[in-house]
């Protein structure tokens, strides 16, 4: 279950906390395909350099059993304006809104800088990564044919959970696709759930705009 927590700060910067928590089911199914026996599955030095290249500072990386990982970092909001930074295609911040754009091409461009993450995408047979055109149903059927029905049912229930904490009370949240985003918000925080299989299957650009 991947999660991303985004905290806007008074200093024109943003704190991002990202984590991947793998279930025993995931670990046991994929350990046959990936070298999970290594003490450190992730190359922390390489990962830190990739994040620094994107503009992150105060980076903290923690790994745990089942190849779990937690990453914390700060980034200046100017990076979301700089068109040379790949993050500017995914996140936009101004005085009255915060926009997350799910652009498969740019997401893959960023993720490909982290070899271990692309290993995950390979094992998940993610259409946004392989370029294969699959419907949601076809993707789940493919997953079940490779890994079994029970694991596919677990995978179908897995969500990417995103929370965004703003500096002002949230007035409204607009999304381009109600089938993709499950949204709840209160005061200065919005909670978003995206079924992981849908996220990995959509090849079109979608957005979510938080207005405050």
Protein described:
The chain is an alpha+beta fold and 212 residues long. Helices cover 31% and strands 33% of the residues. The chain has helices at 24-30, 44-53, 104-111, 115-124, 127-130, 136-147, 149-156, 196-201; strands at 2-8, 13-20, 56-63, 69-76, 91-93, 97-102, 159-165, 172-175, 182-186, 189-195, 206-211. It has a seven-stranded mixed β-sheet with strand order 3-4-2-1-7-10-9. A hairpin with a 3-residue loop joins strand 5 (91-93) and strand 6 (97-102). Helix 6 (136-147) crosses helix 7 (149-156). The radius of gyration is 17 Å and the shape is globular. It starts with a strand and ends with a strand.
Features:
212 residues; alpha+beta; seven-stranded mixed sheet; four-stranded antiparallel sheet; 11 strands; 31% helix
Q: What is the approximate shape?
A: globular
Radius of gyration, Cα only, in angstroms?
Answer: 17 Å
N-C termini distance: 29 Å
Count of individual helical segments = 8
Q: What is the oligomeric state here?
A: single chain
Largest sheet: 7 strands, mixed
The H-and-E topology, N to C, reads as EEHHEEEEHHHHHEEEEHE
Based on helices, strands and strand pairing, what is the structural class?
A: alpha+beta
As a percent range, the share of helical residues equals 25-40%
In which order are the strands of the major sheet placed? Answer: 3-4-2-1-7-10-9
Task: Give the low-confidence spans.
Answer: none
Overall mean pLDDT stands at 87
């Amino acid at each position: 279950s991947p999660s991303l927590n985004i905290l806007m700060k008074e200093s024109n910067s943003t704190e991002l906390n990202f984590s991947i928590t793998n279930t025993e089911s995931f670990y046991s199914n994929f350990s046959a395909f990936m070298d999970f026996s290594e003490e450190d599955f992730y190359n922390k030095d390489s990962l830190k350099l990739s994040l620094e290249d994107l503009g992150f500072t105060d980076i903290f990386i923690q790994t745990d059993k089942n190849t779990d990982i937690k990453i914390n970092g700060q980034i200046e909001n100017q990076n979301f304006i700089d068109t040379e930074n790949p993050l500017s295609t995914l996140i936009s911040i101004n005085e009255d809104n915060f926009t997350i754009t799910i652009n498969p091409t740019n997401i893959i461009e960023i993720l490909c800088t982290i070899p271990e993450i692309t290993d995950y995408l390979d094992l998940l047979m993610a259409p946004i990564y392989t370029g294969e055109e699959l419907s949601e149903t076809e993707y789940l059927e493919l997953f079940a044919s490779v890994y079994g029905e029970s694991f596919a049912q677990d995978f179908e229930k897995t969500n990417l959970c995103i929370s965004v904490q703003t500096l002002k009370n949230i007035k409204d949240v607009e999304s381009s696709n109600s089938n993709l985003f499950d949204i709840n918000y209160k005061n200065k925080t919005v909670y978003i759930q995206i079924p992981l299989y849908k996220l990995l299957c959509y090849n079109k650009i979608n957005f979510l705009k938080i207005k405050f």
